[in-house]
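FORM 7B: Structural annotation worksheet

SECTION A. Query
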Amino acid sequence: MTGANQPTNEIVAQAVARFDQENAVVEGALDLVFKAYPLNSNPQHVLIKTTLLNRLYSAGILDVSGAAQHIVQLGIDAELEARSPAVVEKIAKMRLGGKERNHYSFATKYCSWHRPDVYPIYDSLVDRCLMVFRRQDAHFTFKQNDLYRYESFVRIVDDLRQHYDLRCSYKDLDKFLWIEGQGIAKAKAAKA
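SECTION B. Predicted structure
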């Protein structure tokens, strides 16, 4: 199994710089839109945010209009302001195209773009990286399913920061985990 770099503040800073350099336009566009439309009650504004985030972060939502409508109907602004982890699960569980869907990764990203200081991002690359850390370091005892429950996921991310004495924001840690996860995925694909 391919390993991940043990995180240090220097390694995290290097990954953040690389991520920022490679994704400046994408991150800048998302930043502009989420700052321009901070609330989630206007269907057009939510549709713009949902569409852009879904496309630029490859979230896999086929019915973005339905997803935006779902978010508006939830009335999430007070929960985002209150730092509620439950809002992630509420956004994630959507009924689209007559079927129940769980767009957990999208929901973490959507919340993070509103409150990056409160909501770390989950996606498959972050998952891959965290599972490698778990295999490499006996300190971590979480199960992969723990990553799919948001409150548990946040505790795991907080534990990682504390265990390695990382003095970085969730946003910077998101970038580090994504870059590391990408490297792990590429190394695994090269071996196949």
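SECTION C. Observations
The chain has ten helices and two strands. Residues 9-22+120-191 form one domain.

SECTION D. Sign-off
Analyst initials: ____
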